[in-house]
Amino acid sequence: xNKDFFIGNRERFAQKMxxxxxxxxxxxxxxxxxxxxxxxxxxxxxxxxxxxxxxxxMALVISKVNGVVSEQLFIPPVNELYEKWYGILLRHDxxxxxxxxxxxxxxxxxxxxxxxxxxxxxxxxxxxxxxxMAGMNEIEDQYKALAKKVRNQFPTVNILNALPLIMExxxxxxxxxxxxxxxxxxxxxxxxxFLMKNLKPGMYEYEVxxxxxxxxxxxxSAPSFSTIAASGKNAVILHYVDLVNKINDGDMVLCDLGxxxxxxxxxxxxxxxxxxKFTSRQKDLYNIVLGAQDVALDIMxxxxxxxxxxxxxxxxxxxxLKAIKLIKDDSEVSKYYYHGVGHPLGLDVHDxxxxxxxxxxxxxxxxxxGLYIAQEGIGIRIEDDxxxxxxxxxxxxxxxxxxxxDIENFMK
Length: 412
Ligand SMILES: [Mn+2]
Description:
Creatine Amidinohydrolase, 18 strands
């Protein structure tokens, strides 16, 4: 991605900041996995959105004083011992090339820099930090430590949350972002086709995952979340990640998976008959779920509420499930469909959404209705990634086959 994209994001963020304020963004640190090992590092998506840099233990400070915006990046200093063990650290000129930020300092100078700003005659009024929604990872601790220090030393400075400002930016996808999502969808399509070709009764769920992720690795991509390959009755568990069961002949396998391209995620679900042929019951239920996608897409327009889309799907399921005599009353739908119809998609798999929960132009949403019938050992979900435009929806994952005929023909 071009640095102009990240420069533009910072400009738009700064416009939304109050005057006489500073904003701090941390890039995150990898959590510990065992005694002297770390989990794989995962960059904070807001930091990435504003810098394009995917590296550990960095910070970005954006300041706005009397309408004048300045920016500074803090990165770990070069350390020869570290580089012998773990890899080459980013140099200042490289960080500038990626981000377009020319003012770069050592990471250890961050706290002193913030203190001198807040004690200066600029008389800062606000410090923006980010509180994540989950509030449970390492980055949250870095923000909390900073907030505690600022509250203690500069009690008249307000601590504000930058998240509402940045979410207003991130929900509207720009052309560069849509291209990245399209690329990650392409990886998913290719890997899913390999998975389908290798699918056969008697294989284990973890083998399905291995086939999929092998193809991502061959493209220097990675899953955008823990791959789900749930067969038979496991498919009624929405976030089934154990993947230990043998897939029996006659069962379906629900594959909910994604890929990354430059940190942008795809999120796709397909449900296949493991032996390549749907039973007539499976086919009927499958086509009901497929129909629910069309219902959702009709409602999903700029200005509609997310709830409107889900309500329409519930109403449709009530009608269809009564027709096949699975339920008697509309209220019973929740027994077989028990999640929302979709979520925003972007740098985060469950991406930031507009605060009013209204669907807007250039949002990217998943549409993923499902039916889960535990007593029959059947779980079906079909998920596509949709770009909302003023001229209508664009199904970005339209090329990933999903009709009964197309799946059966492909798997023959
Ligand atoms: Mn999803």
